[in-house]
Design a protein that fits this description.
The chain is α/β, with parallel strands linked by helices and 85 residues long. It is built from four helices and three strands, in the order αβαβαβα.
Length: 85
């Protein structure tokens, strides 16, 4: 169902909405993680968007919208997670 060529931008947001509709998922309660401005439509489609290691444009957009911004190291660890564990 999620096979094929990668999609981005509005197409990714439409695919996400279609997937959620078929599965009965509430996107307002869903999370999405992205690093590129091309994923802005997908992030706008969910209730819990997170910009991870965002490019400059996405970082600015995320801050303007009050979204969470995380910086993960090369191993995928989030800032401060190891300190909390």
């Amino acid at each position: 169902e999620l096979t094929g060529a990668p999609v981005a931008g509005d197409a990714r947001a439409r695919m996400l909405a279609s997937f959620a509709r078929r599965r009965g998922l509430d996107l307002s309660r869903s999370y999405a993680y992205a690093d590129s401005i091309s994923d802005l439509p997908m992030l706008e489609a969910v209730g819990n968007p997170v910009a991870v290691n965002p490019d400059r444009r996405l970082g600015t957009a995320a801050k303007d919208r009050g979204w969470k911004v995380e910086h993960w190291d090369k191993n995928g660890s989030a800032d401060g997670v190891a300190k909390k564990i």
